[in-house]
Amino acid sequence: MPEDTASPRPAAAQAPRGRTRTWAPPFPLDVRRTLMPLRRGGGDPAFRITPDGTVWRASRTPAGPATLRLTGSPAAIEGTAWGPGAQWLLDGLPALLGADDDPSAFVPRHRLVHAAHRRHPGLRLTRTGLVLESLIPSVLEQKVTTIEAYRAWRLLLLQHGEAAPGPRDAGAPPGMRVMPDAAGWARVPSWDWRGAGVDNKRASAVLRAVRLGGRLDSLAARPAEEAAALLTTVPGIGPWTAAETLQRSHGAPDAVTVGDLHLPHHIGYALTGEPRCDDETMLRLLAPYAGQRHRAARLILLAAPAPPRRAPRMAPARHR
After folding, report:
1. For residues 206 and 141, is the Cβ–Cβ distance under 8 A?
2. Average pLDDT, whole number, for the chain?
3. What's residue 318's pLDDT?
4. Distance from chain centroid for Cα 127
5. Contact call for residues 79 and 69 (beta carbons, < 8 A)
6. Is 60 left (phi over 0), alpha (psi -120 to 50) or beta?
7. What Cα–Cα distance (Å) separates residue 106 from each residue in 96, 157, 187, 292, 315?
8. High-pLDDT (> 70) share of the chain, %
9. CA dihedral 90, 250, 165, 52 (to 10 degrees)
C-alpha cells in the first residue's frame, strides 16, 4: 500500500498554517508534465511554478476558494492547502496527480509514439474534478491564438478574481488569483470582456455556463462520454471545447480534440511527414489508439516538432 498521511482536520474552516497531506505515488510520476495542461500560459495567475520547482494552484472548489502548494520529490509529494476548499483539494490530490489514470491499456503503434512513451514514464493524465474551472478558459481559447486566450484569462482573473488564500509567508508567488464565482463572472462589464479581447459570442458562452454553475461541476461524477454529450447541449460549447474541458476535469484518455487549427497538422506531420492534415486524417491516424487517443496525442506533441510554418505567426489583435 502506498504511504498516504494527512494532518488532523482543524476545527476552523481555514487554518492559518494550512492543512497538509503527503502522498507516495505507487508509480513513476513527472509532476510538472502531468499538471502542465492546467497552466494557461506563463503568467497564469491561478498556476505558477517557482524556480525551486514548487507548484502552486489557486482553485475555486465546491467548498470554496483554496490554494495548493506541491513540494517534495516524485516519491513523496507533500501538498499544503489554505482556504475553505483546502480539504477538498487535498482529498483530490491523488487524482490530480494521475492516480485515477490507467496507462496500462495504452499500446504504442508507431515508432515515434513508442519512443515518447518510453522516454516519459512519469506522464499521467490529471483529473481535477472541476468542470467549470476547465471549461471557462477553454471557451476563451475558441477561435483565437493561444497568446490572445492566455491574455484574456490573465486579465479577467486579475481584474475580477479574488486573492488566493494563504499567509504571506507561505512563499506563494505574488499576484495569484482564484477565478470569480458565478456571481462574479456575471458582474464582469462588457468593456472588460472587450478589453480582454473576448468577443460577445465567447463571453455569452461563459455566462450561460456559469448560470448552470453546480450542475456543470456535477458532471465530474459522470463518465466522460456522457459528460461530453451534456456539455455540448449548452449553446456555445461544441466538441472542441468539451474535449479540452474533459481532458482536465476527467483525465479522459480518449478525449481527442477535433476542430483544432494546429493539432491535425502536428500529428499528421509527426506520423506521415505531411505538413498539412485535416481532422479526418488525424482521426484515421489515431484510430489504432481508440480509447487512448488523447494520451497518444500528448505523447506525439512531446516527441515531435510542429510542421514548418507557411506564414509568420498571426499578431494578436489590439483592444482598447
Report:
1. no
2. 91
3. 56
4. 9
5. yes
6. beta
7. 20, 37, 45, 6, 39
8. 91
9. 80
Least confident range of 6-20, 50-64, 215-229: 6-20
What is the distance between the alpha carbons of residues 293 and 247, in angstroms, rounded to a whole number? 11
- For the residues 116-139, what does the mean pLDDT come to? 97
Please give the distance of CA 247 from its chain centroid, rounded to a whole number: 7
C-alpha span between 10 and 4 (Å, rounded): 18
Mean pLDDT of 300-311: 82
Mean pLDDT confidence for 283-311? 91
9 pLDDT higher than 60: no
**pLDDT tier at 4, thresholds 50, 70, 90:** low
Average pLDDT rounded to a whole number, residues 169-197: 94
Pairing of strands 177-178, 162-163: antiparallel
**Burial class of 147 by CB neighbour count within 10 A (0 to 12, 13 to 18, 19+):** middle
Comparing CA positions, the residue from 105, 72, 83 lying closest to residue 3 is 72
In 2-119, at which residue ranges do the beta strands (DSSP E only) sit? 4-6, 19-23, 47-49, 55-61, 64-73, 76-82
**Distance separating alpha carbons of residues 216 and 274, to the nearest angstrom:** 39
The Cβ of residue 11 has, within 10 Å, a number of other Cβ atoms equal to 6
Helix (H) or strand (E) holding 178: strand 177-178
Burial letters 96-119, b for 16+ CB under 10 A, else e = bbbbbbeeeebebebeebeebbee
The band of 57, judged by pLDDT with boundaries at 50, 70 and 90, is very high
C-alpha cell at 33: 508534465
C-alpha cell at 211: 448560470
What is the arithmetic mean of pLDDT over 214-221? 93
Secondary structure (3-state) at 285 = helix
Residues paired with 48 in a beta bridge: 56
